[in-house]
Amino acid sequence: MLVTATKMLQDAKAGHYAVGQFNINNLEWTKAALTAAQECNSPIILGVSEGAGKYMGGYNVIVGMVKGMIKDLNITVPVAIHLDHGSFEGCLKCIEAGFTSVMFDGSHYEIEENIAKTTEIVKLAHEAGLSVEAEVGSIGGEEDGVVGAGECADPTECKRIADLGVDFLAAGIGNIHGKYPENWAGLSFETLDAIQQLTGDLPLVLHGGTGIPEDMIKKAISLGVAKINVNTECQLAFAAATREYVEAGKDLQGKGFDPRKLLAPGAAAIVETVKAKMELFGSVNKA
Ligand SMILES: [Zn+2]
Questions:
Q1: N or C end of the chain, less CB within 10 A?
Q2: pLDDT one-digit tens code per residue, 213-255
Q3: How confident is the model at residue 258 (pLDDT cuts 50, 70, 90)?
Q4: 267-269-271-273 Cα dihedral, nearest 10 degrees
Q5: CA 175 – ligand 1 centroid, Å
Q6: Which residues are within 8 A (CB) of 250 and not within 5 positions of it... i.e. 6 or more apart?
Q7: Per-residue pLDDT at 144 exceeds 60
Q8: For the domain that residue 44 is a member of, what is the CATH number?
Q9: Distance (Å, rounded) from C-alpha 278 to C-alpha 204?
């Protein structure tokens, strides 16, 4: 069932668990994520970066594919299609294409410009019936060529953005996209706590969910994080399983070169990764 992310995240925050956003890259990825969600009876947010959107052929391709899968695979759990780290123009395109949720990432603008642009996106998205995520304080690491330095958001700026009517808010709390470096300082729970004190019931979002220790994930959920983004971890699982298949020479045996066989271990690895995250985040049987 295709829905916005608003209610699923409000329910998650009230119920002290988190819903995973799993970024998709192609048909196999999407099918694996939806299959895992249905088997776990968990709500799911399918994340689409602008780069992945372009890679798959465009936003209309994605909406058509996801809607088709929900119907043909009998996916009854709540599913949101969400633009990840959208530009202003990207958000407009996704609203037009039929996404159910967008993230406007204005974190690289000065706060006044971030506020002005976020206000506009909230108005347009809400008129069209989509949920909106905004970001304060850039998140470290690299995503689609956008590099952040890894910082902690200013809680009062978070409050100002929250008051614009966004449905959930991403704030930098020392988290990083991609693999975490050896010398990573960990999440700043002090910052997260201060943000939640000011933003109340608003669901908070943790980006860069790959490689954050499980106890930190659980503590973040206890402090108001209701959405956790997972991207790199599925990529690593897919690559490792595909490598194993090829290195074992299985693509050279019989019809092992058939893409339906060649990509099967990678897809199965994504299913397992997504399921493990749903267990960790506590969203199993919350559909
Ligand atoms: Zn992110």
A1: N
A2: 999 999 999 999 999 999 999 999 999 999 999 999 999 999 9
A3: very high
A4: -140
A5: 9
A6: 256, 261
A7: no
A8: 3.20.20.70
A9: 17
What is the rounded distance in angstroms from the CA atom of residue 170 to the CA atom of residue 135? Answer: 5
Distance 149 CA to ligand 1 centre (A): 13
For residue 73, what are the CA distances in angstroms to 35, 48, 267, 270? Answer: 8, 20, 16, 17
Is 212 a domain residue?
yes
The Å distance, Cα 69 to ligand 1 centre, comes to 25
What is the C-alpha to C-alpha distance for residues 205 and 29, in angstroms, rounded to an integer?
22
Distance 169 CA to ligand 1 centre (A): 12
**Residue 179 CB contacts under 8 Å (≥ 6 apart), including other chains:** 210, 211, 232
Q: Kindly give the distance from the C-alpha atom of residue 85 to the centroid of ligand 1, in angstroms, as a whole number.
A: 6
Catalytic residues: 84
Domain holding 128, by residue range, is 6-281
Domains contained in the chain, number: 1
Q: How many C-alpha atoms does 209 have within 13 Å on its Cβ side?
A: 32
pTM for this entry = 0.95
Expressed in angstroms and rounded, the spacing between residue 238 Cα and the centre of ligand 1 is 20
| Cα gap 49→154, rounded to integer Å | 25
Would 129 be classed as within a structural domain? Answer: yes
Residues 124, 131: Cα–Cα separation, whole Å? 10
Rounded Cα gap, residues 165 and 5, in angstroms: 14
CA 176-126-11 angle, to 5 degrees, is 60
What span, in angstroms and rounded, lies between the C-alpha atoms of 40 and 235? 21
